[in-house]
Design goal:
8-stranded mixed β-sheet, 14 strands
């Protein structure tokens, strides 16, 4: 698409109120799904995050990495098993999850941000004892339930204009490490930071009244209405824990929470810096 210089100027002018609104505010982006697999989408996401950082918005990137974990488990001959949407994690699987998330994926994202002109530091929840956890239950093994979030290191990095890139590994006082669901970790981190917004990138357009009809998107949802939608079956299956994370983030003090379609290039910028927005917005 060819855009003239006057059109470029108009686009920037329209974005100005949103830049002013978010400047020096904190946004937490939960990054996962197809946007992490497609190189084209990954390029767009990293570019969006660097742009937001360069215009004075404090961005925290929290990432998952399910497909790459599956790939590594397959290579080691371990079978992936899920219960209630969460990976059953024995001790060996916990070590593999840590290696993939805190190692390969995390450092690749940091490298890509720097190559786009941004500043980033890769972290996991063990660093500075950021994400303290305990066993969720005996069924899931080393899947963590978050006990506490220490934001000191995150805040220090944001003050120095770095983008913290966080992989969701938790710790406990017995030297165990835990696999933490990325949606849950992003919600708790955003809540602890009292972030202006939490943006959940997903492989769906947002919350749909009819899961088979993309045009039935619910653009705005008050968290008090979520239980009724669950009762009606509009929120069901894998959307239940995702919506619960969104409503929990609001209750912890996040101003707005979004579920957006990460399969759309530049969906973060569309949501943050335009009138039209994209996806579903959760508010108090």
């Amino acid at each position: 698409m060819n855009i003239t210089n006057p059109q470029r100027a108009e686009i920037l002018t329209q974005a100005l109120p949103y830049i002013q609104k978010y400047r020096n505010k904190t946004i937490v982006v939960k990054y996962g799904g197809n946007a992490m697999i497609s190189e084209e989408l990954k390029e767009a996401v990293i570019g969006d995050i660097v742009l937001l950082s360069l215009i004075g918005i404090r961005v925290v990137l929290v990432h998952g990495g399910g497909p790459e974990i599956n790939e590594m488990l397959n290579k080691t001959g371990k079978k992936s098993e899920f219960v209630d949407g969460l990976r059953v994690t024995d001790k060996e699987t916990a070590d593999i999850v840590q290696m993939v998330l805190a190692g390969k994926i995390n450092k690749n994202l940091v490298n890509q941000i720097h190559n786009k002109g941004g500043k980033a530091v890769g972290l996991c929840g063990v660093d500075d004892h950021m994400i303290k956890a305990e066993k969720l239950d005996d069924v899931h093994g080393y899947v963590g339930n978050i006990v506490n979030i220490n934001t000191e290191l995150i805040t220090d990095l944001l003050e120095r204009d770095y983008i913290p890139v966080i992989s969701t590994i938790g710790y406990d006082d017995e030297n165990n490490t835990y696999n933490i669901n990325a949606d849950t970790a992003a919600a708790y981190i955003a809540g602890a930071l009292k972030a202006e917004s939490l943006i959940n990138m997903s492989d769906i357009p947002g919350l749909l009244r009819d899961k088979d009809d993309p045009d039935s998107l619910i653009k705005k949802l008050y968290v008090s209405d979520a239980p009724e939608l669950m009762h009606e079956g509009i929120i069901s299956g894998g959307m239940i824990p995702k919506v619960q994370c969104c409503t929990e983030a609001i209750r912890m003090g996040v101003n707005k929470v979004f579920i957006i379609d990460g399969r759309i290039p530049h969906s973060i910028l569309i949501e943050t810096l335009t009138d039209e927005g994209i996806g579903t917005m959760f508010v108090e």
